[in-house]
Amino acid sequence: MVLPIQEQHLIFKTTTIVAAREQYIADITNWVTESANPPSSMYWKRGPAGVGKSAITRTCTEKLKETGHLGAAFFFIATKHTNPSCLFTTIAYQLATTIPDYRTIIDERISKDKMLIEKKIAFQFRSLIVEAIQELGKQGKRVQPKAVFIDGLDECAGKDGQAEIIEIIASSVREKCTPFHWAIFSCAEPRIMSTFKQGNITSFTP
Fold first, then answer.
1. CB 175 within 8 A of CB 126
2. Where are any strands of DSSP class E within the chain?
3. Residue 175 lies in a domain
4. Contact, 172 vs 91, CB < 8 A?
5. Domain CATH number, residue 47
6. What 3-state class would DSSP assign to 30?
7. What percent of the chain has pLDDT over 70?
8. How many whole angstroms separate alpha carbon 199 and alpha carbon 69?
9. Is 120 contained in some domain?
10. Residue 94: inside a domain, yes or no?
């Protein structure tokens, strides 16, 4: 029996999409686990809504959690999780659940500054992530490279906030002040596109 041409096309299209997703998943997990000298510690996967970016993110995080390479994952969701101020505090919390010595430092910092979680996101990132990791290094406790996923950046409230998040992470990658691989997933919104195109921002975008 020969299938109608329309059905053949649908099967081909579905198979191609599945194959592409599997390749993206393989590329991302290999970028985290096998690349001794990756082109960048910042990855950007862009695409229109509904193509399966979040599904790729979830599959990658599940695989990397199994191998011990997952640091944290944050999902911006329209009408639910859109506040940029929650991003780095959530990432710090998730890192603290898997790195006990890091958790001790975070607890001390928050106990000394109760308003820390209300401050600007650049300050949160510097205090809760960069400086905390550096403090561990001074103690001779090295944090192994791990992946941090940020999905749905275009759902983050405010174009300025979206751009600032990219710039903060890009700056940390340039300075090599954290051991993390940062994977960002979003629609190709103009402000996000223009921010990634800045000369001082280099991302791995296969």
1. no
2. 42-46, 70-75, 146-151, 180-186
3. yes
4. no
5. 3.40.50
6. helix
7. 85
8. 29
9. no
10. no
Question: What confidence score (pLDDT) does residue 134 get?
Answer: 95
Helix, strand, coil percent values for the chain (each to nearest 5): 60, 15, 30
E-state strands within 31-129: 42-46, 70-75
Q: CA-to-CA distance for 85 and 161, rounded, in angstroms?
A: 9
Other beta carbons within 10 angstroms of residue 171's beta carbon come to 16
Structure tokens at 178: 């954290």
Residue 3 has pLDDT above 60, yes or no: no
Q: What is the mean pLDDT of residues 153-160?
A: 94
Section 135-149 average pLDDT: 92
As beta bridge partners, residue 204 has 43
Per-residue tokens: 206: 């296969």
Res. 81: pLDDT tops 50: yes
Distance of CA 143 to the CA centre of its chain: 17
Residue 41 lies in domain: 5-84+144-196
In a domain, 138, yes or no: no
Q: Is 4 helix (H, G, I), strand (E, B) or coil?
A: coil
**Residues composing the chain:** 206
Does the structure show a pLDDT above 90 at 21? Answer: no
Total tally of structural domains belonging to the chain: 1
The confidence score (pLDDT) of residue 7 equals 41
Name the token pair of 102: 């890091």
Check pLDDT > 80 for residue 166: yes
Pairing assessment for the beta strands 146-151 and 70-75 based on DSSP bridges? parallel
- The pLDDT-based confidence of 22 (bands split at 50, 70, 90) is confident
Q: Residue 142 has what pLDDT? A: 87
